[in-house]
Amino acid sequence: VAAPDAGHAQHMVSHIFYALADWKATEAANVRAAGVVNSQRIASGREATSCGHYNEWLAYSLLQQGKDASDLIKSCHSQAAASIRKFEEGGRSDTSVLQGTWSATRVANFLGVDGAEWIEPLELPAVPETFAARFQQEHGQLLKDRHDPVIVREKLNMLMQLRDERLQYAREQDPDREPEFPVWALRAIEQGNALLLLAEGKREQGLAKLEEAAAAELDLPIEFGPPPIFKPSYEILGEELLDYGRREEAVEAFGKSLQLAPGRWRSLAGQATTLR
């Protein structure tokens, strides 16, 4: 194996494997990468970690194979909870300890969306360093309860509030520059708007809005890694259409979901169901 002591070198080949939906090879590459990182952490006197970029890819690839990723994901989540306690007990002065919260909320959403097991949300402190983690966690909870209009509205409002807070913070940090909000976070809000219409029983409006959101996702450059939106809107659209008996339209929606996120087992399963 080339560059056996370089975790990033071990990981980078999995970008190719992801594009090919080769989950076994993706898993193996990130097992190696995470192993290198943890060996180096232990050698420097630090604890091993279940969080981080390589473990995120590992968790996603395990779930796409139908394997159990819950131990890895719950370990990351526990480490993030411990870092939050450390932050609070240390007088909330060292925000660097909160870095793992982004990773923990990300993989928790993977487990919920792709593994149908939702972890209790973290008690994330409201500091700038957790903007992304808080946004991800609220988005995950919206997806979890996407058929409940009260919860969807509450979580959607939280997403928009976090958007406004982050933009305001960015303006305060650099008054001479108009900030931009991350494009995929904006897509999550648009997905939430569509899901609220569906949860409220406004079927045709909701489906139209969801298709609009899905098309906008597909127009963005493809990222060769776990989907930047936790559940592609085309996948949700396919599931909704299938529930309404609109099988031909559902086939097309699942196919477009697989363009955005190759090899997703839920999109593949939905497609297989429509073709029976």
Describe this protein's structure.
The protein folds into two domains: 1-117; 145-276, Alpha Horseshoe (Serine Threonine Protein Phosphatase 5, Tetratricopeptide repeat). It contains twelve helices and no strands. The N and C termini lie far apart (43 Å). Helix 7 runs antiparallel to helix 8, helix 9 (203-219) runs antiparallel to helix 10 (233-243) and helix 10 runs parallel beside helix 12 (265-275). It is globular and about 60 Å long. With 276 residues, it is mainly α. 69% of the residues lie in helices and 0% in strands. The longest helix is centred in the middle third of the chain and has 25 residues, at 149-173.
What does the secondary structure layout of this molecule look like, with pairings?
Blueprint lengths: L6 H13 L3 H21 L9 H12 L5 H20 L10 H16 L15 H14 L4 H25 L9 H17 L3 H17 L13 H11 L3 H14 L4 H11 L1
List keywords for this structure.
globular; 2 domains; 0% strand; mainly alpha; Serine Threonine Protein Phosphatase 5, Tetratricopeptide repeat; 69% helix; 12 helices
